[in-house]
Amino acid sequence: MILPNDPHDKELARLVHPDDWKNPTPAGRYNLVVIGAGTAGLVAAAGAAGLGGKVALIEKHLMGGDCLTVGCVPSKALLSAAHVAHRVRHAGEYGVAGVNSASVDFPQVMERMRRLRAHIAHHDSARRFSDLGVDVYLGEGRFLSSDTIEVGGQKLRFARALIATGGRAVVPPVPGLAETPHLTNENVFTLTELPKRLAVIGGGPIGCEMAQAFARFGSAVTIFDKGKVLLSKEEPEASALLRQVLLREGVSLQLETELISVAVADGAKKIAFKVQDGNEQTLLFDQILVAAGRAPNVEGLGLEAAGVKFDTHKGVKVDGKLTSSNPHIFAAGDVAGHFQFTHAADAMSRMVLRNALFFGRSKLDELVMPWVTYTEPEVARVGQDAAGAKRADAKMTTYTVQMAQMDRAIVEGDTEGFATVHVDGKGHILGATIVARHAGEMITPITLAMTKKLKLSDLGETIFPYPTQTEVLKRVADQSSRARLTPFVKSLLERFLRWRR
Questions:
Q1: Beta pairing class for 378-383 and 370-373
Q2: Please, which contacts does 197-200 make with residues 24 or more away whose CB atoms are closer than 8 Å?
Q3: Which helix (H) or strand (E) holds 398?
Q4: How far is the C-alpha of 289 from the C-alpha of 180, rounded, in Å?
C-alpha cells in the first residue's frame, strides 16, 4: 500500500495513521459511531460533528481509505502524467517541434504521485478530524451487541452507527493466480520500476484506465476479459470508440477469453488462456494487474452480534434509506454494495445523516448518479443507456452530436467522441453519455437537469460560453428542438410570418 522508507509515504502515514496516536476515553453514549474512515465515513463523521453531535470514528488502517491511498488520488496522478506524455509525443501535430521522442522517467512519475498524495492527506488526517470534534479511534472495531462497539479494548455505546468499511479487489478463481505474485489497486502504486510487459485482467473502468496509462509510459500491455467488449456497462458506441483508441495506442486486447492458469516460469509470469475458437495460448508478462471487480469488507466486524444481515459478495443488506436489518445501524459506500464511486459514498453518507439523526426520508433511488471512466477520451454517463431508456419509455428519443462538430474540440485536436442524450415522450432526460477529453466535467449540467427534473429544452435555453466543449449539450438540445418542428408546425409558422410581413 505504501513504501515504508519513502519520505512522502512516511508523511502520509504520519497524517492518516500516526504511530503516537492515543485513542480518547469514551464518555457517555455517542450519537453516531462510524466504522471506516474512507470517504463515506469521513463525510458522515465531519457532518455529524459539525451539526453538534457526539461522534466517534474508527479506522484500523489509513484514514482517507482507498480513495486517498490506493484509488482516486494516486490513479489520477498517474493518469495525468500519462496524458502529458502522450500529448508531448504528439506535439508535432500542433507545430511544436523537438519533443516527439520524449521518454518517461517512471520512478519520477511514481515519486510525484506519492508527493501529491501526501500533500492531499492532511484533509483526511486524524488530527484534523479530532480538531473538528470527532473522537478518532485507530484500531479494529467490532460490534459486541446491537448498540455497542469495541475498539482497542474500549467499549463505545451508540444511538446510531454507520458501517463504512469499503471494499477490496477481487481475485478471480483462476488456477495459480492467488499463488502468483500479482498487482491490484492496493499495491500497484508501490511500483518503482516500469514493467516491460503488463497483463491487465479485466476490461472495466480500472482496467482500461491503467492499461492506457502504462501503455503511454512504455509498457507492452494486454487486456484480458471474458466479455465481448470493454466497458460492458456503457453504450456500445462508447465501448467501440475506446476499443479503437486503445488498439491505436498499442494495447493488445484478448476479449472473449477464458483464463486457464497462471504460473511463474523462467522469472516471468505465464498466463495460459483459451481464445474464442477454443485454441489455447500462453503469454509471458513481467507483472499482472488484477482489475476484475470489488468485494465488500464485511469480515471481522461482528455483524452477527449486532443483528446486521450481510452477504460476502453484495455487502451489508440495506433498504432504500440505507438502514440495515438493525434499525439503528446504517451502511454507506462500497460496503453497501450499490454505487461504488467516491462521490456516491459522499452522497450516501449525507443521506445517512438525514435519515439516522434527523428522521429524514431520503431514499437511494432518488439519487441521480453520474460516473466517469478516466481514459482519454473520458467516458461519462448518468442515468439510463439507450436500452434502459427504451424500457422506461417506449416513446424515448435519442439525440447525438459528434465532438468533431464542435469548434473547441476541433482547434484542440480532441474530435474523438460524442454526446448522446435520451429523453422521454415529454422531453425529460432519461440518461446521457458523453465521450470526450473533458467528459467528466461536461456531464454535470445533465446531472443537474435530471436532479431538478428539467427538460432537455431547458438546456437549450441556457447560454453556454463559446468556444467550449460543453457547448455540445446546447447543440444536442437544439437538435431536439428542431425535431419538434414537424411539417405541420412549420407550415403554421410560415403562414404566420407571411401574415406579419
A1: antiparallel
A2: 197/222, 197/268, 197/284, 197/285, 197/286, 197/287, 198/222, 198/285, 198/286, 198/287, 198/288, 198/289, 199/224, 199/269, 199/271, 199/283, 199/285, 199/287, 199/288, 199/289, 200/224, 200/289, 200/291
A3: strand 397-402
A4: 11
Beta strands in 275-392 (DSSP E): 280-285, 287-290, 294-296, 310-311, 315-316, 329-331, 370-373, 378-383
Is the entire prediction scored with pTM above 0.85?
yes
Residue 100: band (very low, low, confident or very high) from pLDDT cuts 50, 70, 90: low
Lowest average pLDDT, out of 249-263, 357-371, 396-410, 411-425, goes to 357-371
Please classify residue 134 by burial: count the beta carbons closer than 10 Å to its beta carbon, then call 0-12 exposed, 13-18 middle and 19+ buried.
buried
Q: Which three cell numbers stand for residue 412?
A: 484542440
| Residue 311 three-state SS | strand
Q: Are 480 and 456 in contact (CB under 8 A)?
A: yes
8 close to 118: Cβ distance less than 8 angstroms: yes
Spatial contact of 212 and 376, defined as CB atoms under 8 Å apart: yes
Q: Where do we find the cell 453556454?
A: 464
Q: Which amino acid is at 16?
A: V
Which residues have C-beta within 8 Å of that of residue 423, sequence separation ≥ 6?
396, 397, 398, 399, 429, 430, 455, 456, 480
What percentage of the chain exceeds 90 in pLDDT? 89
51-99 pLDDT, tens digit each: 999 999 999 999 999 999 999 999 999 999 999 999 999 998 899 887 6
- Residue 466's φ and ψ, nearest 5 degrees, are -110, 140
In the chain, the percentage of residues whose pLDDT exceeds 70 is 99
Residue partners of 305: CB distance under 8 A and separation at least 6? 143, 144, 145, 146
Q: Which amino acid is at 96?
A: V
Nearest of 375, 376, 368, 313 to residue 343 by alpha carbon: 368
Question: What angle do helix axes 72-89 and 205-217 make, rounded to 10 degrees?
Answer: 40
